[in-house]
Amino acid sequence: MAFTGKATYSAGATLPELAEDVSDLIGIISPYETPLLDVLGDPMREAMSTHHEWLEDELLPNKDAINDGTFGDPATDTSFVVDNGERFRVGDQIQVAGSEELMLVTDVSSDTLTVVRGYAGTTAEDLADNQVINILGNAALEGADKPGARFTNRSRCGNYTQIFTKTVEVSGTDMAASQLGLSDEMDFQKQERLREMLRDLENTVINGGRPASDPQGSGSVRRSMKGVIQHLATNVFRTGDSGFPSGADLDEAKINYVLRRIWENSSGNVDLIVVGGFQKRKINAFSAESRTFGANDTTFTDMVSVYESDFGVCRIVTTRWLPQDTALLLDSSRLNVLPLAGRSFHFKPLASSGDYECGELIGEYTLELKNQAAHGVIRDLSTS
User: Fold this and answer.
1) Quick one: which of 378, 281, 298, 369 has its CA closest to 331?
2) Span 63-138: which CATH code?
3) How far is CA 26 from CA 29, 150, 173, 181, 182, in A?
4) How far apart are CA 335 and CA 131, in angstroms?
């Protein structure tokens, strides 16, 4: 080849004597992580119907509340009204929360209890409306007939499946041409759309809701699953609620308050605290004031991955898809994300009507959240 005298900087990509220099790696910056799904893992079973159901049960309650605002002398006022008289039996020892007085139930008439005040040598104390009553246990008479049978009814709970779809379409020319950074355009498009579907699945598992009417779906109503937040009804706490720790910032007092309330009222074992990026920084600051470093330390650590409390050890999960003003406290053993049988994410080739190849990525999933009272959520936290 004849000498040209050209410098490399005078040669561009249009000149034939220099090859293009393009990396074989394709950089993707869009977030597609699914940390909650990763923690929950793959389920051990599949849903068998578009309406997936499960059974829940509970023990007979051992708490109630006074529903009476008229009280006289504690020593002589031996009857009062409660919210649910059917929870009590003659022979029950009861105690008002925060009181040292014991009482013995001698008669139950609808929602009115007749009791022995100052039972077992305790001192009768003033009662008030809405005080919580603990049922300690029943003292049966020796040789007495069996008491009437009492039982709870199992409840059927359920959630609907939701179909997730994405279309992939690649021209014949694109399929035949050599591509930079990949060997097969169709496979690459499948991979990208699958990442989007997994991202959307996690987002829906957390935030999704189902239609108020015709939730089973129809030709005009889209069937959608109810997410974690919409499932929770018992342990929903908002900053500013009566009795809830003051302040809008997430702190240990709020986390421990919710953990204690769940522990007091259920056998749930909260092991996940799910937060967004802002609230994760608040959790990292829990021990900031007591964190120390040596003179020779060259690494600054400011991260809390596990929170250990009196009510359980909780892994901290940070997800982009949770509302920033929210913190979820979950019992992962009661959570599953299930595919409908044979309908986990898969690719279905479709007939082409022209010079292109096409297909559809399809998946149908539902959320199984058992015993919603075993979980909790904090809302309206500060985000700035």
Assistant:
1) 369
2) 2.40.30
3) 10, 66, 21, 6, 8
4) 34
Residue 158's SS3 state is strand
Nearest 10 degrees: CA dihedral of 372, 377, 380, 384?
Answer: -150
Q: Kindly state the tokens that stand for 146.
A: 């069996």
Residues in the chain: 384
H/E element, 95: strand 92-96
Q: What H or E segment, with its residue span, contains residue 337?
A: strand 335-339
Predicted TM-score (pTM) of the model is 0.85
CA distance to 158, 171, 218, per residue, from 362 (Å): 22, 21, 18
The pLDDT tens digits along the chain (384 residues) read 565 555 555 555 555 566 666 666 667 777 888 999 999 999 999 999 999 999 999 999 999 999 998 888 888 899 999 999 999 999 999 999 999 999 999 999 999 999 999 999 999 999 999 999 999 999 999 999 998 899 899 999 999 999 999 999 999 888 888 877 778 889 989 999 999 999 999 999 999 999 988 999 888 899 999 999 999 999 999 998 999 999 999 999 999 999 999 999 898 899 999 999 999 999 998 876 777 777 777 777 778 899 999 998 999 999 999 999 999 999 999 999 999 999 999 999 999 889 999 999 999 999 999 999 999 999 999 998
| Contact of 376 with 236, CB cutoff 8 Å | yes
Distance CA 344, CA 348 (A): 12
Please list the helix, strand and coil fractions of the chain in percent, rounded to the nearest 5, in that order.
20, 30, 50
Distance CA 317, CA 309 (A): 16
Whole-angstrom Cα distance, residue 242 to residue 234? 15
